Amino acid sequence: MQIYLDYSATTPTRDEVIFLIQTTLAQQWGNPSSLHEWGQRAATVIEVARSQVANLINASPESIIFTSGGTEADNTAIMGVARLYSQPQHLIISSVEHSAISEPARMLELCGWQVTRLGVDAKGQVNPQDLANAIQENTVLISIIYGQSEVGTLQLIPELGKIARQHHVLFHTDAVQVAGRLPVDIENLPVDLLSMSSHKIYGSQGAGALYVRPGVELVPLLLGGGQEMRSSLTGMNTPSRSGTQAVAIIAGFGKAAELAMEEMATETPRLIKLRDRLFSHLIDIPGLIPTGDLSQRLPHHVSFCLVNADGESINGRNIVRQMNLAGIGISAGSACSSGKLNPSPILLAMGYSDQAAMAGIRMTLGRDTTEEDIDWTAIVFQQVLERLRK
């Protein structure tokens, strides 16, 4: 019996998406920048997908820039704003950002920028008042992750974005884990930039998107032909990303977004029910500590750390390996670098000890997850723990 429970890492590509990618590769293989029929057929595919992705967040199609994935979308937001300034300014992020945000921030800091990393509470949430207090005269951008991939906590993006708008500061959110899983209405959400990813919503790897509110200027990361253009308030097209678009992959992204939009009303409540079922099975395990906010949480996300009665943690990677041997794919919350297991910076930021921060576990659910999968996973997990604790 094989059970995949790592949907926050990547989702299996849907059959409908695979079919469309194959068809596009066979029939719409032209360069979308070319003016002849072959090129214009490909260009039409791109624009259909742009509308589909835009509809997922209730945005205008011209506000969507296609990228190679969520990491490029995040980097475009951070560095695209930063490069507008000839002198270092002030950037605010949270202490629980994905590395696609924290690493560009670190690079800016090395270049003289001032970076404020907002602390979070034990559930992983930013206090809105802390954000308000951190804003300075030279603050030019705030970036706060929408749904934290490791512990599942949802940030108060409407409230945080409102504070940024009151201070006339650009606001970006990494919504890679949220878009397609929870409703996002950009017309009622006070954000200027928002990142998405195809392979988190059953599209293929290799495509992402950045929403850019009309009137917001960015300096492109990639210079060249300016294939991805967007309209500014002046009516002029502004180059936002260069490089020939991956037509088939983008087409698949559009299809995945369309299907996610159609199914969200039924799929999201189903996932929440399964998520809570798994938590209820595991909650009484000795030494198991749920991580993240249990209510303000991604609908598909279960996370926790494990500490023995003597205070020693159980190595998260060992649990992942043992579960894999049993045919169940889960994730360790801590990062592995050069063969060395390091404490999770996310859990450390939330106040967990070094020991506990090395014992984070994440189980994330998806379209193929059933109640039987949940029940069997809970049984196997407890058996694995019993063996490891002997």
Write the layout of secondary structure elements.
Layout: E1 3-4, H1 15-27, H2 37-56, E2 64-67, H3 70-82, E3 90-94, H4 99-110, E4 114-118, H5 128-134, E5 139-143, H6 157-166, E6 170-174, E7 193-197, E8 208-212, E9 228-231, E10 237-241, H7 247-282, E11 288-290, E12 301-306, H8 316-325, E13 328-329, E14 331-332, E15 336-337, E16 340-341, H9 345-349, H10 354-357, E17 360-364, H11 371-388
Parallel strand pairs: 1-13, 3-4, 3-5, 5-6, 6-7
Antiparallel strand pairs: 2-8, 7-8, 9-10, 11-12, 12-17, 14-17, 15-16
Helix pairs in contact: 1-7, 2-7, 3-4, 7-11, 8-11
List keywords for this structure.
11 helices, seven-stranded mixed sheet, Aspartate Aminotransferase, domain 1, Aspartate Aminotransferase, domain 2, alpha/beta, 390 residues, four-stranded antiparallel sheet, 17 strands, 2 domains
Summarize the amount of helix as a percent range: 25-40%
Biggest sheet character: 7 strands, mixed
Distance between the termini: 26 Å
CATH superfamily of the largest domain: Type I PLP-dependent aspartate aminotransferase-like (Major domain)
Report the CATH topology name of the largest domain: Aspartate Aminotransferase, domain 2
Shape: globular
Side-by-side strand order of the widest sheet: 2-8-7-6-5-3-4
CATH uppermost class of the largest domain:
Alpha Beta
The figure for the number of domains is: 2
